[in-house]
Amino acid sequence: MRNTGKNRDSFGLKRLGNAVLDLLYPRRCPVCGDIIMPKGGECCDRCRGAFAYVTEPYCLKCGKPLREETEALCPDCLRKERFFDFGRAVYRYDDRIGRSIYGFKYNGRQEYARFYAQEIVRRYGRMLSELKPDALVPIPLHKKRLRKRGYNQAALIAQEVSRLTGIPAEPSLLQRVRNTRPQKSLNERERENNLKKAFKIRQNDVSLETVILIDDIFTTGSTMDSAAGCLRDQGVKGVYFIVLSITSV
Predict the structure, then answer these.
(1) Domain residue extents for the chain
(2) What is the DSSP code (8-state) at residue 54?
(3) pLDDT in tens, the chain (249 residues)
(4) Most CB within 10 Å of its CB: which of 24, 101, 107, 148?
(5) Which phi-psi region, left, alpha or beta, contains residue 86 (left: φ > 0; alpha: ψ -120 to 50)?
(6) From the candidate CATH numbers 1.10.3470, 3.40.50, 3.30.230, 3.30.1150, the one assigned to the domain spanning 51-246
(7) Which residues are paired to 136 by β-bridges?
(8) Is residue 61 a contact partner of residue 204, using CB atoms and an 8 Å limit?
């Protein structure tokens, strides 16, 4: 009984602390950027469902939206060797989700991670249960970029998904050893060359069987392939991914 009382007191203090923080630093909606109304949620009620979800048809390998229902794979997955088993995305990438992710990454809106994680679990909670991953592994930033930004946006999402599902997050498993150029400024060949040997495993003995990589945006998949290949080389048998958004074909 004594421990239960302490736990209740601790929970009550945490709720009070969160309420004070919300009062002093009110949360911003990841969709419209305004203070969330009504307070206490992760986005405004009017903004829920405003982002464009990925719907069928989509590539069975990378999850990229397809134009024709008769297609099974996107052009990239038809002609490239992929090192991941398959992956899925929550949203189609467009200007609206792009602005949200920009605020998340570059304007310090770390609180958006909680909303993003809720959306990931809502859409792919069953998939997570079926795959039974040993760990969620965020795509890492190079130490110089991490120092400049102050946080890794993929790690924040992975930690929130971990909180909701109980799947361990392993933000330190992968290390980015090359300070690669931003992928969005490169063509396809440059993207692949840019990421060669960009990642390494921090520990020698990796006992994980199944891993889910976490990131914010999937374009050609070069980053995901490089990270997945690194995990495969260390004996990880099942490599999957979930991203917040993905570009269309």
Answers:
(1) 1-44, 51-246
(2) -
(3) 445 455 455 444 444 544 455 555 788 999 999 999 888 889 999 998 999 999 999 999 999 999 999 999 999 999 999 999 999 999 999 999 999 999 999 999 999 999 999 999 999 999 999 999 999 999 999 999 999 999 999 999 999 999 999 999 999 999 998 877 665 666 666 666 667 778 999 876 678 999 999 999 999 999 999 999 999 999 999 999 999 999 998
(4) 101
(5) beta
(6) 3.40.50
(7) 169, 212
(8) no
Q: In which region does residue 85 sit, left (phi positive, over 0), alpha (psi from -120 to 50) or beta (all else)? A: alpha
Rounded Cα distance between 213 and 229, Å, is: 12
Tell me how crowded residue 243 is: count the other CB atoms within 10 A of its CB.
28
Q: For the whole model, what pTM was predicted?
A: 0.86
Reported in sequence order, the residue ranges of 109-209 that DSSP labels E, i.e. its strands, are 135-138, 174-176, 199-201
